[in-house]
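User: Here's a protein and a ligand (A1CAB). What would the complex look like?
Assistant: Let me lay out the input and then the predicted complex.
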Amino acid sequence: MIAILGAGKMGEALLSGVLRAGRRPSDLVATARREERATLLRERYGIEIVSNAQAAAKADTLVLAVKPQDMGALLAEVGPHVPPGRLVISMAAGITTSFIEDRLPEGTPVVRVMSNTPVHVDEAMSVVSAGAHADETHLHMAEELLTPVGKVLRIPESLQDGATALSGSGPAYFYYLVEAMVDAGILLGMPRAAALEMVIQSAVGAAVMLRDSGEHPVLLREGVTSPGGTTIAAIRELERHGVRAAVLEAIEAARNRGRELASG
Ligand SMILES: NC(=O)C1=CN([C@@H]2O[C@H](COP(=O)(O)OP(=O)(O)OC[C@H]3O[C@@H](n4cnc5c(N)ncnc54)[C@H](O)[C@@H]3O)[C@@H](O)[C@H]2O)C=CC1
Ligand SMILES: O=C(O)[C@@H]1CCC=N1
């Protein structure tokens, strides 16, 4: 049995993905802080909503899906109820496996995961790292849980904060660019709906070519950039405004913020 502790946005997305992948609602339990949330999850997925202590006691795999700031309190609550040897999977940004291990019974296997919101459409990017007591079997169990909702990559834990900045937050950067491009369409006199459709389809087309062509992004961009044409006029402005440096600094700032989260 899998328990999702703190089934908010990410926890619910994983929960629904696991059910789409064919697990039965009776194989899952979840916990929620508010009663309305518990009722909604029960009605939407037909799963049992229990207390954190009950979930910790009955599940073989515990998925911790609360915000980093709530992790200390959650572990203090469930720590005494986790039987030895249970697999604990954390989805939280910044929280290290040692932070979790220190608050659970000695020897608890912990796998740290960073996923992203495309879990909703089975296109997530998830990265996994083993804690001190997690072995191949535990990594494999985490991968089995996450593979139905997208791609999974193993990385050393030292790269987890970087992965959080790159792929955990990644969808937000693309949405931000889409917003800005739609604004540009409005500036050029287009109706908002038309601008949105043009930008979204361009994003989808570009993403599919990136994923399926095997070409490096530089070559794909060169394919769009005609000598003396329109694209290079835009690229010159992006370069002049330092967009590449801004992206590097933004993602580094996200990585640094991740490092701060474990300390509260
Ligand atoms: N939103 C995102 O794009 C991503 C979030 N994450 C990570 O996933 C985790 C969850 O994030 P979200 O789903 O966005 O947050 P959220 O706020 O939607 O979900 C957390 C849920 O936990 C509940 N909760 C808090 N303490 C609890 C407790 N003691 N017992 C039971 N329930 C409790 C809250 O009421 C809330 O419903 C975070 O640690 C975040 O760093 C990871 C990747 C992407
Ligand atoms: O913004 C955040 O802290 C979370 C972690 C990765 C994406 N969202």
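Summary: The domain at 170-261 is CATH 1.10.3730.10 (ProC C-terminal domain-like fold).
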